[in-house]
């Protein structure tokens, strides 16, 4: 059966598969009633621990927040309903989540810009992601997997050029919504996600909290400014040995050396994130303030005109110079 024949609940026509993350597949799709383009995440129900049901619940709770994509349809199948099949062509029985279509990831855009972003672009990204993280924390969740693949550009008219989170499968509640009691500190926890942007606490096997989202964001901003990180690209076949080496570099290299060539605000950002205690609430106002102070001191305007927006214009200018 061709993919153009695949329907989800009679409302959505499945298109091209664009990404696979563990047991969840991402597809381009279209609402056949409204002609609206959407993103559909699909997961077979055979998995013992269905990630998509968990992610859908979190996204549902976060709706309306800064940097949170709109969710249009969320199918939750209980175990006792497993015989009531939702057929999606040859996909078999599936859980699925229909959400707002997003554009390229920051990592893709970074590659398009020859692996270097300007200070203006990095600061605009940083302020937006920080606001989105703050909202998640306000709603009692931590992301736990802040990375350049997980943030995408908005392409819908009302959200064009704004930065959005895409995946929430690693997110977790750090406090009880009713009692506001913080989760307990634990050790010997597995590393979640890629090691590139993981906090030092993650490498040490500590339970993650709000401070770790902030530290991961700091690494991401440094990565975008400098084009790389000292622990990126290690040629090691043994995964555990590689994680150990990344941890060693992160813990031994000084913040000043890591942030060399970056504005002081980035150094302060990372320094502050590492100073936080396990249950500490980050001072988001302070963090936004130091980024925006650098932004305004440089005379920048927060116009959402990033490096990748200017890329076609720069190419035309270069061609004109050569002609």
UniProtKB/TrEMBL annotation:
Domain of life assignment: Eukaryota
Cited InterPro entries: CK1_Ser-Thr_kinase, Kinase-like_dom_sf, Prot_kinase_dom
Stretch forming the signal peptide: none
Domain Protein kinase intervals: 12-301
UniProt-recorded Gene Ontology molecular function terms: ATP binding; protein kinase activity
Pfam family, one: Pkinase
The name this protein goes by in its record: Casein kinase I
Phylogenetic classification of the source organism: Eukaryota, Sar, Alveolata, Ciliophora, Intramacronucleata
């Amino acid at each position: 059966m061709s993919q153009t024949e695949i329907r989800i609940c009679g409302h959505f026509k499945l298109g091209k598969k664009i990404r696979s993350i563990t047991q969840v597949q991402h597809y381009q799709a279209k609402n056949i009633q409204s002609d609206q383009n959407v993103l559909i995440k699909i997961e077979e129900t055979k998995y013992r621990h269905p990630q998509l049901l968990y992610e859908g619940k979190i996204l549902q709770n976060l709706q309306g927040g800064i940097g949170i994509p709109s969710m249009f349809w969320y199918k939750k199948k209980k175990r006792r309903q497993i015989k009531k099949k939702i057929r999606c062509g040859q996909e078999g029985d599936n859980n699925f989540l229909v959400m707002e279509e997003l554009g390229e990831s920051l990592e893709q855009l970074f590659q398009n810009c020859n692996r270097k972003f300007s200070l203006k672009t990095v600061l605009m990204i940083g302020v937006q992601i920080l606001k989105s993280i703050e909202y998640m924390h306000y709603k009692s969740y931590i992301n736990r997997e802040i990375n350049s693949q997980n943030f995408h550009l908005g392409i819908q008219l009302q959200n064009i050029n704004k930065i959005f989170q895409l995946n929430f499968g690693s997110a977790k509640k750090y406090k009880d919504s009713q009692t506001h009691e913080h989760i307990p500190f634990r050790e010997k926890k597995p590393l979640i996600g890629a090691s590139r942007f993981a906090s030092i606490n993650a490498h040490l096997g500590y339970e993650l909290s709000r401070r770790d989202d902030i530290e991961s964001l700091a690494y991401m901003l440094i990565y975008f400014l400098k084009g790389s990180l000292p622990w990126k690209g290690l040629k090691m076949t043994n995964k555990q040995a590689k994680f150990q080496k990344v941890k060693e570099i992160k813990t031994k290299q000084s913040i000043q050396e890591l942030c060399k060539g970056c504005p002081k605000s980035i150094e302060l950002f990372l320094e502050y994130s590492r100073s936080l205690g396990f249950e500490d609430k980050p001072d988001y106002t302070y963090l936004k303030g130091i980024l925006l102070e650098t932004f305004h001191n440089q005379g920048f305007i927060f116009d959402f005109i990033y490096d990748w927006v200017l890329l076609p214009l720069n190419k035309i200018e270069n061609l004109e110079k050569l002609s």
